[in-house]
Design brief:
Helix content of chain B: over 70%
Structural class of chain B: mainly alpha
Oligomer: heterodimer
Number of strands of chain A: 0
Structural class of chain A: mainly alpha
Number of helices of chain B: 9
Number of domains of chain B: 1
Number of helices of chain A: 9
Largest sheet of chain A: none
Strand content of chain B: under 5%
Number of strands of chain B: 0
Distance between the termini of chain A: 79 Å
Order of helices and strands of chain B: HHHHHHHHH
Largest interface: A-B, 90 and 97 residues
Shape of chain B: globular
Distance between the termini of chain B: 46 Å
Radius of gyration of chain A: 26 Å
Number of domains of chain A: 2
Shape of chain A: elongated
Chain lengths: 260, 241
């Protein structure tokens, strides 16, 4: 059952294509469980069929079990590819450190924690903030930044993760640990805060441009800008909805615009 | 809404496709970021013939909802359909009511109402996910009834059912947010038109201020004030020239 390189690439490609639909049947009972079952079904079926062929006279069985599964969507190919590798090892009768059926349950939460912090908490705001800065600077192709800074890395992680996951099996967990992805996520978040400062400065330059003929009111608006920023941050941290604060800020700024 | 009849069949088809594909991208499909406001807003603006408005509305909406993350069981407000609705209405309404209302005020009003109604899309998405529970029960019952000697139960239909479910939810979400935003604009139009608007351009930057605050408030890293100040200061000095 050892795979040739062609078969391996075919399997990895198939797994990645199917992983694109991991969330298609997301539900509150087993989360991505249905999706992962659907992704793995043809692979498990092939393994089992090959297994049955080696024992003549046995009938085909249904190695399907619906279980809770929830991990970061971009790291899922890595987890599922490692599970597939373990399943193949098991079918060959080789020693495995953890049973293939138990592997996703054991690793999905830590992988989700790292993946969510890196992709959703770090990379997505980074890509969006770069796009917003480019938009404020007048670059019409600004949205391309989102695709370059987020979509492209996630495709690389999906494909690379599935290859590494398949080749390393259960050892992939140790490899993820060595990459210190949580630290990388924190560093990206720090860059995001710097980029937020850039957005705020560009927005302020826009305000200045609007006030250009009456520069005497600039100081007043600078104070209002800083005050409203502080108030907004304070209230948002106390879970006041952003829409309420948006309405409040617009009213205050329109009143200030009329008064000055 | 007379302008809506001026749109070609191709434009309607593209808008419909954008709404469904972007909706699927945020829920069921690849999560390629087609659903992000700055991307789908631009695409909607491109279809409607006003790319700049799409970019501006998309960038503002992006900042407002950026830190509402789709992690675990949490469902973020539907900023995708909110942005598409706002851009669609702005591109359609702005040439009609320029004499009554400055375009910036219309843009801000649409942005505000679309953002306010985006959580309705979230409820619809949660409903769609609960509908998927029925699929889960069906599969579970089927699998429990299968003996080890039976042929495998084919799950080929599974993603299709989910995709249909989420597509309908996306369209429904779009209709709800669009109608609610339009109704709010129609109701508040007399008030907005009666108010004196001095420097409406300023208010657009006020939205960015709120957006920056919304992101800053939720990023928790060490020395955030110093880092923010550094970014602000350097940009301020560089743009002074």
């Amino acid at each position: 059952m050892h795979k040739t390189l062609k078969n391996l690439l075919k399997s990895i490609f198939k797994l990645n294509v199917r992983c694109m639909l991991l969330q298609s049947s997301w539900n509150f009972r087993v989360f991505q469980g249905l999706g992962s079952l659907w992704i793995m079904q043809p692979f498990l079926h092939n393994i089992h069929r090959a297994d049955v062929k080696s024992v003549p006279g046995e009938r085909l069985s249904a190695p399907q079990r619906l279980k809770y599964f929830n991990t970061n969507t971009f790291c899922a190919p890595c987890v599922l590819a490692a599970q597939l590798a373990l399943q193949e090892k098991q079918a060959r009768g080789e020693y495995v450190v953890i049973r293939a059926e138990d592997f996703p349950t054991a690793v999905m939460a830590p992988v989700a924690a790292v993946g969510d912090a890196l992709f959703w908490g770090g990379l997505r705001p980074l890509a969006a903030l770069v796009a917003i800065i480019l938009a404020l600077l007048g670059y019409v192709w600004a949205p391309v930044a989102v695709l370059l800074l987020f979509t492209l890395p996630t495709i690389i992680v999906r494909i690379g993760g599935s290859v590494v996951g398949y080749l390393q099996g259960a050892q992939v967990v140790a490899l993820i640990q060595q990459l210190h992805l949580a630290n990388l996520a924190v560093q990206i978040k720090q860059i995001n805060v710097v980029l937020l400062g850039v957005v705020a400065a560009l927005a302020w330059r826009g305000v200045e441009a609007e006030l250009a003929p009456e520069s005497s009111s600039t100081v007043f608006f600078a104070a209002a800008f800083i005050f409203m920023f502080g108030i907004n941050v304070f209230l948002l941290r106390r879970r006041i909805p952003v829409v309420v604060l948006l309405g409040l800020t617009l009213i205050i700024f329109s009143a200030a615009g009329s008064a000055v | 809404m007379i302008w809506a009849t001026d749109l070609s069949a191709v434009q309607w088809l593209l808008l419909l496709l954008l709404s469904v594909l972007a909706g699927l991208d945020r829920t069921a499909l690849a999560q390629s970021m087609l659903c992000r406001p700055i991307v789908c807003g631009c695409l909607c603006g491109l279809i409607m013939g006003n790319y700049a408005a799409g970019l501006l509305l998309g960038a503002a909406m992006e900042l407002l909802w950026l830190m509402r993350l789709p992690v675990g069981a949490s469902v973020a407000p539907d900023d995708t359909q909110g942005t598409i609705a706002a851009v669609f209405l702005f591109c359609g309404l702005s040439p009609q009511i320029t004499e009554v209302l400055p375009p910036q005020v219309l843009l801000l009003a649409l942005l505000f109402f679309a953002a306010a109604f985006s959580p309705l899309g979230r409820l619809i998405e949660i409903g769609a996910r609960h509908l998927n529970d029925m699929i889960e029960r069906r599969v579970q019952n089927k699998l429990e009834g299968i003996h080890t000697t039976d042929a495998p139960y084919s799950l080929g239909w599974l993603p299709v059912t989910g995709l249909i479910n989420f597509s309908v939810a996306s369209l429904f979400s779009q209709i709800v947010i669009l109608c609610a935003t339009l109704a709010s604009i129609v109701c508040t139009m007399p008030l907005l038109a009666a108010l004196p608007w001095h420097r409406p351009g300023l208010l657009v930057y006020a939205v960015f201020l709120v957006g920056v605050a919304a992101v800053y408030a939720l990023i928790t890293v060490r020395y955030s004030a110093v880092l923010f100040g550094a970014g602000f200061g350097v940009t301020f000095l560089l743009t002074q020239v």
